[in-house]
Design brief:
With 67 residues, this protein is an all-alpha fold. It has three helices and no strands.
């Protein structure tokens, strides 16, 4: 999977986690997945500055849902 695809997965899972706030268990599962994808982008050697910024934002937002 490319860095762009991984970032897209993070965004999609974060959006799903946000939509599922009425179901805390499922919301948390999607947020955990989003966080993992975002972390992968942050560690990717080929990530651009913009991708880094987006991944950092997704990571923080996912952590807010998980907390």
């Amino acid at each position: 999977m490319t860095t762009a695809e991984t970032l897209h997965e993070a965004a999609t899972d974060l959006a799903t986690a946000t939509l599922l706030t009425g179901d805390p268990h499922r919301s948390r599962q999607y947020a955990l997945s989003a966080r993992a994808y975002a972390a992968e982008v942050l560690l990717a050697a080929d990530a651009t500055a913009a991708q880094h910024h987006d991944a950092d934002t997704y990571l923080h937002n996912a952590n807010a849902i998980i907390a």
